[in-house]
Amino acid sequence: MSIISEKNFDIRKLTSFKTGGIIKEVFYPESIEECENIFKNHPSIKVFGNLSNTLVSSDGYDGAIVLTAKMTDISINGNTVTAGAGVKGPKLAQTVCESGLSGLEFMIGFPGSVGGEVYMNASANSQAVSDTFVSALCYSKTKGIIRLSKDEMRFGYRSSVCQSEDLIVLQAEFELTPKSKDEIKAQMDSNLQFRKNHQPSLALPNCGSIFKNPQGNSAGRLLDSIGAKTLSCGGVRIWENHANFIVNDNCGTSLDILSLMFDLYSKVKEKYDIELEPEIIFLGGKNEKENELCKILYKK
Ligand code: EPU
Q1: Which of 54, 221, 276 to mutate to test ligand 1, by most ligand atoms within 8 A of the CB atom?
Q2: In this structure, which residue's CA is closest to atom 3 in ligand 1?
Q3: Which atom of ligand 1 is nearest to the CA of 241?
Q4: Which residues line ligand 1 (CB under 6 A)?
Q5: Model confidence over 64-122: pLDDT tens digits?
Q6: Whose CA is nearest to atom 41 of ligand 1?
Q7: Assessment of whether the complete model's pTM goes beyond 0.90
Q8: How many degrees, rounded to 5, is the angle at CA 82 between CA 117 and CA 146?
Q9: For the chain, which domains are there?
Q10: CA-CA distance, 46 to 48, in Å (whole number)?
Q11: Rounded to the nearest whole angstrom, what is the distance from the C-alpha of residue 108 to the centroid of ligand 1?
Q12: CA-based diameter of the chain, in Å?
């Protein structure tokens, strides 16, 4: 059976930031075997879930990517849940709640999917992926499909070994705790309310927190103190209620977003000698100005 793919795909409608252009080819694998096949034939292919934490260049991307949107299997065995990389956070949170299992309530408001959440050890409301994570099936360019235990994942704040070793998360397993459905639902409602009060909804196109919190500090507070909430560039601006969010509510481009990020980065560096590190991932490479900004912001 052939793997589903689309050539010259306009990705803008799929991205949380509502930026993006033409991607040369997009693959939609439906199984781990199909992923393995694609990776063997395209060794440098990039993999994304729901593109909720990714800024895609308005000039598009001159290569192939994988979207894991069709890898959505969920299975529950006792207190253990196994989920495909493409399962969206809210779907997983609701499914385990129905089985009376607690530990993933924080995922209820996440627009992302399991692969990306494991890759960056997503966290919110005092819960993190690493709290309940048991193991993951990952693809390694040198070793093929491997299973990594929690220790081997070397989770940190918004980090895992997958980032440093270029591993792709295909499926993850979590060990949860039995709890009453009502308690789990109450926690999820409270998380959603927190999100509604503190973060912009996706009706205002955004990618969540722009920068990671520096150790022992808060990116939002640092950015607020340099007057970020009054800053804008082209069609994008800083959200008025939290300085670590950029919203694209006026048809801004990826260059607008990277330019505003650079402005924020420079002002914090100048005032505090702290170099903020982006939390969002960038996909592009065709625009010279963007490439220059990325070299500074992403240090590569
Ligand atoms: N603050 C300001 N001004 C602002 C924004 C924040 O002074 O404009 C202060 C707040 O008053 C607070 C501190 O900064 O004292 C931290 O802010 P907040 O409580 O909003 O948390 P955060 O560190 O900005 C983190 C995660 C969020 C996660 C929330 C809740 C990061 C970079 N962000 O936000 O994750 O939802 O905690 O747990 O770690 C994401 O990763 O996309 C994301 C939204």
Answers
A1: 221
A2: 221
A3: 8
A4: 124-125, 198-199, 208-209, 212-213, 218-221, 224, 242-244, 279
A5: 999 999 999 999 999 999 999 999 999 999 999 999 999 999 999 999 999 999 999 99
A6: 209
A7: yes
A8: 75
A9: 74-198 (3.30.465.10), 219-297 (3.90.78.10)
A10: 7
A11: 17
A12: 58
> From ligand 1's centre to the CA of 273, what distance in Å?
20
Q: How many residues does the chain have?
A: 300
Alpha-carbon span 24 to 111, nearest angstrom: 25
Residue whose Cα lies nearest atom 25 of ligand 1: it is: 124
Distance between CA atoms of residues 237 and 246, nearest Å = 6
Catalytically annotated residues:
158, 209, 279
Residue with tokens 């990277």: 258
Instruction: State residue 300's pLDDT score.
Output: 80
Percentage of residues in the chain having pLDDT higher than 90: 98
**pLDDT tens profile 240-259:** 999 999 999 999 999 999 99
Nearest to 97 by CA among 189, 222, 211, 3: 189
As a whole number of angstroms, the distance between CA 183 and CA 13 comes to: 36
Rounded distance, CA 212 to CA 120, Å?
11
Strand partners of residue 48: 67
